Amino acid sequence: MDQAWTWLVVLGLVVLGVAALAPQPLPLRPAILSPAGGAEVGLPARVALGNLPEGAEIGVRVLDSYGRLLGEDAARARGGRAELELYYDLPASPRGRLEVFLPLPGLEEKVLTSREVRFADVPYSWAKVYFLDPAGNPFPLIRRVPRTHAPARQAMELLLSGPTWRERLRGYWSALPEGTQLADVSISDGVAEVHLAGIPEEFSPQLSALATRQIEVTLLEFPTISQVQVYADRGYLGP
Predict the structure, then answer these.
(1) CB-CB contact of 165 with 59 (8 Å)
(2) Which of 146, 189, 194, 197 is the most exposed place for a label (fewest CB within 10 A)?
């Protein structure tokens, strides 16, 4: 009996030692800097978070008052802050809430903090933005966007912002390098010229072909565009 108790004590100490040595999650208490509580949010909803550790990825979702998920995305903290523009579906109620969460499978349901908001009445339309599916084929993902007189520029900016964290989780991705910027887009006689900045020199021909294909099929959705030409800092990219 004494020997059995001895083994139990040893086993307990081993378990406690392993638990003490295992990495413990840092407490995360993000603060919603904007919008203010009860404030009106437009389309997209512009959200700023604070009190974040450097490099932490943090998620934000928006729901209507019926609890229906309208949209979600994530951003990485820099200097203790994270900012993102959140496009969301048409709400079924004038009020809703923002929820902050960890964008990790299995942990995303835990709400770290939340805030009540009102939805602005914004004239909107729907945009198709082509990202790549797991097989590398262009696939349209839909965004509700404010109406604009420059829909091609709007579509390009949405494309450069990349898929949302949930879309990435489902396998959608973009061949356009992170940090790529839109220098200019112009349309003349049905030809859209897209000028990009920030494409790295080591950008491979394979990725370049996929990226230009994404741009081409996204812009060919517009009836005023019949041909697309893409240029970067170092010259013509394609198609």
Answers:
(1) yes
(2) 189
Mean pLDDT by 10 residues, the chain (239 residues): 42 40 58 96 97 95 97 96 96 97 94 97 96 97 96 97 95 95 96 94 91 97 96 84
* Cα 116 from Cα 118, distance rounded (Å): 7
What single-letter amino acid sits at 25? P
Host H or E run for residue 238: strand 235-238
Which pLDDT does position 10 carry in this prediction?
39
DSSP code string of 124-162: EEEEEEEEE-TTS-EEEEEEEEE--S-HHHHHHHHHHH-
Amino acid at 83: E
> Token pair for residue 138?
């262009």
Cis peptide leading into residue 239 (ω within 30°): yes
Q: Which fold has domain 31-119?
A: Immunoglobulin-like (2.60.40)
| pLDDT of the residue at 142 | 96
Q: What are the boundaries of each domain within the chain? A: 31-119, 124-238
For 115, 187, 212, 239, the CA distances from 193, given in Å and listed in that order, are: 42, 6, 12, 11
